Amino acid sequence: MDVSGLEITGGVPLRGEICIQGSKNAALPILAACILGEGICEIENCPRIDDVADTLAIMQRLGCRIRRSGDTVRVDASGVDRFETGGEETARIRSSVLFLGALLGRMRKAVLPLPGGCAIGARPIDQHIAALRQLGARFFLEEKVTADAGALKGGRVRLAMPSVGATENAILAAVTAPGETLISPAAREPEIDELCAFLNGRGAQIMRTEEGGIRIVGVRRLGGTRYRVGPDRIVAGTYLLAAAATRGQIEIPEFPHQELGALLALLRRMGVTVVCGERALCLSADRPIRAVPYLETAPYPGFPTDLQSPLMAVLCRARGESCICETIFESRFRTVPQLQKMGAKIQTDSRCAVIKGIPALTSASLTSPDLRGGAALVIAALQANGSSVIQNTRYIARGYEDICRDLGRLGAKIRWIEEE
To answer: Please, which residues bridge with residue 355 across strands?
Structure first.
């Protein structure tokens, strides 16, 4: 069935147990890293999302042999013989930029169009290019990004800020470069450590320094490995926020609580009961949600920008006035007009949004503006009076395996609707 939207009838508290898919933000750089070396890699718990499908299509164009069985993806990169990515897949996803570092590490050359993704800000790739230049790569920038790294070697990589993507690209290029590399300030997101663990399992020599940098001793070859991707902290956070918004009670086994400390602390400030047990995390939201006077998004371990829009949807009905300041991406408030269609009282000024809580949201016909904004609209519809329809769900499918299936298991009245 071809689907174009979601229909959601609000007012039902989410209750029950739900498992979390594998991490999108870990799987994508790990898949790009599979092209480094010729060993066979098996990636378990690899999420079935559109961004992964596009990444695998790019890898096949480069010469990889791919086989998926359930949640496991098997990659044989011995046949990689191309250094140029192309096709619609490369232009669709932001993470295609990771093939820049991976191809330089494998082929010492790379050609790719400017990457796509959600329209949440300018997100230039200048930091990626600056990092790779410090490892000896030369760039020619016209309609495409063309790079040559015949003289690739380890060195000191100084980043203007701890960019996740630039850190990942530097790791991918440096892991097989002769000599030693030190990246600082390196991003501290858990997905960076997953990439390093995957590469170390293949024979790489990567370690964190006491100061938070990343030290890499280049190796001549990488072997194969089997690696299991951890749970997706953003998906887990989305479902926690959905349960809080609907005054629900849910349990999530194997919850990545160490990776979501900022969210859990915030939920407790909002009056939500959160208990981290040995086996699972339990959330209960049987009291009205309290407003958040001020919150800034920040690089890890701060509050993640990817959960800012879902949080805003929850705060639309909080008691009092909340303020969110977005410090990462300048266009993260594209969800606001859609929430306002539901009656939300939100005012934005530059990078700050002030949300005045109201007793109830009303149903509406909505359009998803981006991946996390789409998830925010789902949360808003779950707590609204009446039935809402969300169009442009292709964004949601980029990061959530099946949000309809998952929330349906928790009792939500949600269903896919067919194309007209």
So the answer is: 322, 346
- Which of 118, 196, 316, 404 is labelled catalytic? 118
pTM for the model: 0.94
Longest dimension (CA), the chain: 63
- pLDDT tens column, 95-105: 899 999 999 99
- How is the beta sheet containing 321-325 ordered, strand by strand? 295-296, 321-325, 352-356, 345-349
The fourth-level CATH superfamily of domain 24-228 is Enolpyruvate transferase domain (3.65.10.10)
Task: Say if residues 22 and 30 touch (Cβ distance below 8 Å).
Answer: no
Residue 369 pLDDT: 93
Average pLDDT score over the chain: 93
Categorize the per-residue pLDDT at 120 as very low, low, confident or very high, splitting at 50, 70 and 90: very low
C-alpha angle with apex 161: 208 to 167, nearest 5 degrees? 45
Topology of the domain covering 3-20+231-418: UDP-n-acetylglucosamine1-carboxyvinyl-transferase; Chain (3.65.10)
Span 332-344, mean pLDDT? 94
Phi, psi dihedral angles at 183 (to 5 degrees):
-105, 125
> Residues 43-61: pLDDT tens digits?
999 999 999 999 999 999 9
Is 19 known to be catalytic?
A: no
The domains spanning 3-20+231-418 and 24-228 adopt the same CATH topology: yes
Q: Which of 140, 63, 145, 155 is nearest to 98 (CA)?
A: 145
Distance from C-alpha of 53 to C-alpha of 103, rounded to nearest angstrom: 19
Domain boundaries, the chain: 3-20+231-418, 24-228
